[in-house]
């Protein structure tokens, strides 16, 4: 007898519908799974057999063949376990075929028959258009974000069997737990001094501009970077769904269900390329750049990252997405993040000044770790020096994050009126329409281009930063020379000797 159960599998951050076809026939007992399953998916034959027996149900001593259609889509993980088990019970005649009509099934089975959660419950449920979808009880809160009123949460295979057989009703959904209180984000008022760096941080947040902080150890670069997310506005509903989808597909914790605040990701400098941009051998998992979508990606000790890893960021910095190609196909992951990075000016941190212990060759090698095309994609490059003792000991309270966040939200609202999430996304005709230059500003940029201080890409980025600076001041339409000069002052160039020069 043949049974077909609808389910789904993950490809990147997206769910793809899968038809689990189960054929049970007389013959030498065996269990075969076909249809491009990976190793964990093939192991379902052992988990399903043990789960059915542990649930006091009958395991058919027959020839069982499972086909995962379509056969050209790789299947990964254990999320198809429950669908296979239900298919075996229907194909063996223990359940009526009509009981699974228009039913979606998703879940991993334990050897004791328990139904366990699976990574990517949100995109997987979103890919199924069935009137009812069976999921693990622990996945119900996330699943209901994609399919409200259609989710049937269960704790074990026995509950599924009894509900489909009509002997018991579907289990009552668990009471939704209130989201845990959000952790307080670090506040800008903790930063003493550093007026230029604080201003650059506000400009970066308001306009969505990528920022690099360069300075000696102890200058406060990491403290500044970790406070950037606290001045960003809440995510819109569409952004929240996108970010939650990525975190669900990546197996990241979703303690409060829908993510409403911009995420903050800070991978270690030893991270591999696959960990940062996504990939892997089994399936193209989302990397840190995708997990930071809608929020901040912080790369501390930027000069210690492998050059090849940093150059892999050039596409997502430019396009807001990442394409991961593998022999079995290519997937696209969202990667629209705000990059903030911090680095010492040289290996010892002194930056070529008095007390620097770095040889000229070591300085040159350190600076070459950042390629020109990568640095050209950074909107703001700012020097951060150690604060004065008076700022640390005698200064009063500085501006809190809440006050800065109000100004950032106002600039972001103007950007949305222009049809962009932030000013950093303006380009081409949008710049001509929303960031026109007066005569003096045009001459300043012409001189910078003639001197080789700006590329064509750098020109666009300077104009977007100038647009943000003008929005923070008074929101005037035309960009002035002072706006352009301010933007250029926030775009320093690494001079190859451990310092910065105006760019």
What are the defining features of this structure?
2 domains; 503 residues; 36% helix; Rossmann fold; elongated; four-stranded mixed sheet; five-stranded parallel sheet; 18 strands; alpha/beta; Ribosomal Protein S5, domain 2; 21 helices
Indicate the topology:
Layout: E1 2-11, E2 14-25, E3 30-34, H1 39-42, H2 44-54, E4 63-69, H3 81-91, E5 103-105, E6 108-109, E7 115-116, H4 121-126, E8 132-136, H5 140-146, E9 151-154, H6 157-165, H7 195-207, E10 211-214, H8 221-226, H9 237-249, E11 264-265, H10 273-277, H11 288-291, E12 296-299, H12 307-311, H13 314-319, E13 321-326, E14 329-334, E15 338-343, H14 360-368, H15 372-376, E16 380-383, H16 389-393, H17 401-417, H18 429-434, H19 439-450, H20 456-473, H21 481-489, E17 492-494, E18 500-502
Helix pairs in contact: 2-3, 7-17, 7-20, 19-21, 20-21
Would you kindly provide a brief summary of this structure?
The protein is an alpha/beta fold.
Give a verbal description of the structure.
- With 503 residues, the protein is of the alpha/beta class.
- It folds into two domains: 2-165, Ribosomal Protein S5, domain 2 (2-Layer Sandwich); 188-501, P-loop containing nucleotide triphosphate hydrolases (Rossmann fold), CATH 3.40.50.
- It contains 21 helices and 18 strands.
- The protein has helices at residues 39-42, 44-54, 81-91, 121-126, 140-146, 157-165, 195-207, 221-226, 237-249, 273-277, 288-291, 307-311, 314-319, 360-368, 372-376, 389-393, 401-417, 429-434, 439-450, 456-473, 481-489, and strands at residues 2-11, 14-25, 30-34, 63-69, 103-105, 108-109, 115-116, 132-136, 151-154, 211-214, 264-265, 296-299, 321-326, 329-334, 338-343, 380-383, 492-494, 500-502.
- The mean pLDDT is 89.
